[in-house]
């Protein structure tokens, strides 16, 4: 016979009627119960100490009567599946690690397979019921709790979602369009930024436009573990991409990365992806991405912002304007310029290659790998976390060189400046300076710059005094050739004196003709005339 659960309020009603002097027959008619049931409730109440007064009719008394009316559970005999499993009870507990909660046991499906190998063929549902009742296996169904509402302006949740295909005029073909959805948790107001890319610059651009749309910045931003922002996902210590970390400092908000594969970590924006796709994007005709973006902003304001939210039962835009907008951090700083980072090796020529341009680095860093950052105007070079060089950014194929990065003995050669070369030569002696100065005279001093540099090398090899004397000797003989100066030094002729010229006079040299001198006369002698 089936058992019907007795309502406690039925018992209270019957006892209260009897307490005020109503007969059992009238009580049965008034409550619709059988007189035997009324007598049974009265008998059980008196056995529990009820004195028949109205003041002693309490919910506790009715509850005790209700418990006494419940049938005693009979111990049923084990079924066929339980009889098979009971002999393997300890093995099941060991596989599930019931007695060792700190260790992870096998899944119940795996236990089912292991039992089948032992010849125990029972349905999985029977195994699950047996494990819960006799092995202490916890039910895997999770309960949820509602979190306390956050304060206005405290949190924004961000997530990417795929919308569909949209024509891209630049590529001349259809491309997948994504939506970066930024939702303010308190008001449920949101902004949608559409993009063909999920790279870092698109994320920052989308957040910038969202903050401008909201008119301020929330104190905390919960992000999905997108690779362009979170370089290493971790439940407690995620690694944030350095550019995005700089952006968070620029906008003064805290980065809060959601747990990996944990959609309930950002529940307010998780369901918005489907809502944006179905309510806004699907079924429309789009020209290009710019058209989608224009209509997305209008949709956020007029449709999504003015709907009655299913949870709060309020209009998100109204709550945002009245409550949340005044609490956002104002946009005091200008637009964030996304820097470009890279890792470069310093080559033997003291330069690195970054963004198709060259930048010099001091000698001691040759062979090392340095970090380089460009903000569009300046290029900063770091080694070991310390800035070691700052250059103005140059165009592709160009070079920015600080000649102070070279060793001091090579600076003159790297400068390729005639004036600097002459100044260096004068330091080694006046005649060295005069020689180099005359060597580099003219409209094209670059043609003899290597010879001037050779003179400086001779000073280092043979000494400044000898080289100065050799240049003085070469100038005395009107010789402007660095190789000739080198030979003078090699042969030790730097002290040779130039010859002193005698006073100018005409000297008749002896004639060297085979004929007689008269043969060249215009009036030859009579004896010399040919017959």
End-to-end Cα distance, whole Å, is 180 Å
CATH superfamily of the largest domain: Ribonuclease H-like superfamily/Ribonuclease H
Radius of gyration, CA atoms, in whole angstroms: 50 Å
The biggest beta sheet, please? 5 strands, mixed
> What is the overall number of helices?
20
Mean pLDDT: 83
Spatially, the strands of the biggest sheet line up as 3-2-1-4-7
Proportion of residues in extended strands: 15-25%
Structural class: alpha+beta
CATH architecture of the largest domain: 2-Layer Sandwich
| SS elements, strand count | 14
Low-confidence segments: none
Residue share in helix: 25-40%
Give the total of domains. Answer: 5
Overview of the structural elements:
It is a single chain. This protein is α+β, with helices and mostly antiparallel strands. The chain has 5 domains: 8-69; 80-134; 155-327, Ribonuclease H-like superfamily/Ribonuclease H (Nucleotidyltransferase, domain 5), CATH 3.30.420.10; 340-406, no CATH class; 411-491, no CATH class. The chain contains 20 helices and 14 strands. The strands form 4 sheets. A 5-stranded mixed β-sheet has the order 3-2-1-4-7, with helices on both faces. It is elongated.
């Amino acid at each position: 016979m089936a058992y019907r659960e007795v309502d406690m309020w039925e018992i209270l009603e019957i006892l209260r009627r009897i307490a005020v002097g109503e007969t059992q027959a009238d009580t049965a008619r008034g409550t619709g119960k059988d007189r035997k049931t009324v007598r049974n409730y009265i008998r059980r109440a008196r056995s529990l100490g009820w004195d028949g007064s109205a003041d002693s009719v309490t919910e506790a008394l009715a509850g005790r009567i209700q418990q006494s009316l419940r049938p005693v559970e009979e111990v049923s005999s084990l079924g066929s599946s339980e009889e098979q499993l009971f002999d393997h009870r300890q093995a099941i507990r060991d596989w599930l690690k019931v007695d060792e909660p700190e260790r992870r046991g096998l899944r119940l499906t795996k236990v089912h397979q292991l039992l089948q190998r032992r010849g125990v063929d029972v349905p999985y549902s029977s195994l699950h019921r047996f494990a819960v009742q006799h092995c202490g296996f916890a039910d895997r169904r999770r309960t949820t709790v509602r979190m306390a509402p956050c304060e206005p302006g405290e949190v924004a949740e961000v997530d990417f979602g795929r919308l569909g295909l949209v024509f891209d005029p630049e590529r001349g073909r259809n491309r997948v369009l994504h939506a970066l959805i930024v939702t303010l948790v308190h008001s449920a107001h949101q902004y949608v930024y559409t993009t063909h890319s999920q790279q870092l610059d698109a994320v920052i651009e989308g957040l910038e436009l969202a903050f401008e749309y909201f008119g301020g910045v929330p104190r905390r931003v919960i992000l999905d573990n997108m690779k362009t922002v979170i370089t290493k996902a971790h439940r407690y210590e995620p690694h944030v991409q350095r550019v995005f970390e700089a952006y968070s400092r620029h906008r003064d908000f805290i980065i809060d990365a959601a747990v990996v594969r944990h959609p309930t970590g950002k529940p307010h924006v998780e369901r918005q992806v489907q809502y944006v796709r179905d309510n806004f994007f699907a079924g429309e005709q789009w020209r290009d991405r710019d058209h989608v973006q224009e209509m997305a902003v209008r949709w956020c304001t007029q449709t999504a912002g003015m709907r009655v939210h299913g949870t709060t039962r309020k209009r998100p835009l109204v709550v945002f304007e009245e409550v949340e907008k005044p609490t956002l951090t104002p946009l005091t700083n200008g637009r964030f310029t996304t820097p470009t980072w890279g890792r470069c090796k310093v080559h033997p020529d003291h330069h690195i290659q970054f963004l198709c341009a060259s930048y010099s680095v001091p000698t001691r860093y040759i062979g090392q790998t340095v970090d380089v950052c460009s903000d569009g105007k300046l290029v900063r070079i770091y080694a070991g976390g310390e800035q070691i060089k700052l250059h103005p950014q140059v165009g592709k194929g160009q070079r920015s060189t600080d000649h102070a990065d070279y060793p001091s003995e090579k600076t003159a050669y790297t400068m390729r400046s005639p004036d600097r070369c002459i100044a260096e030569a004068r330091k080694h002696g006046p005649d060295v300076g005069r020689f180099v100065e005359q060597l580099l005279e003219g409209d094209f001093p670059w043609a003899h710059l290597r010879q001037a540099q050779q003179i400086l090398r001779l000073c280092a090899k043979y000494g400044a005094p000898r080289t100065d004397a050799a240049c003085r000797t070469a100038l005395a003989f009107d010789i402007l050739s660095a190789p000739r100066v080198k030979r003078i030094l090699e042969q030790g002729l730097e002290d040779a004196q130039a010859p002193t010229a005698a006073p100018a006079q005409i000297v008749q040299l002896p004639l060297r003709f085979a004929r007689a001198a008269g043969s060249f006369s215009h009036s030859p002698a009579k004896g010399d005339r040919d017959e």
